[in-house]
Amino acid sequence: MKLQSLSLVVMLALSSAPALAMSCQSSDSALKSWSQSERRTAIETFVKEVTDPKSPQYVAVKDRIAVFDNDGTLWSEKPMYYQLVFTIEQIKGQAKNNPEWKTKTPFKWVLEDDLESLMKADHHALLELLQATHTGVTVEAFQQIVNTWVTKSKDQRFNRAYIDLTYQPMKEMLDYLKENGFTNYIVSGGGTDFMRAWTEQAYGIPAENVIGSSFGYDVVKIDGDTLLVKNGTLVSNNDKQVKVENIQRIIGKKPILAVGNSDGDHAMLQWSTSQNSPSMAMIVHHTDSEREWQYDRDSSVGRLDKALDEAKQKSNWHLIDMKNDWCTVYGAEK
Question: Which residue, 12, 230, 245, 281, could crosslink 269 as a Cys pair with Cβ 3.0–4.6 Å?
Answer without folding.
Answer: 281
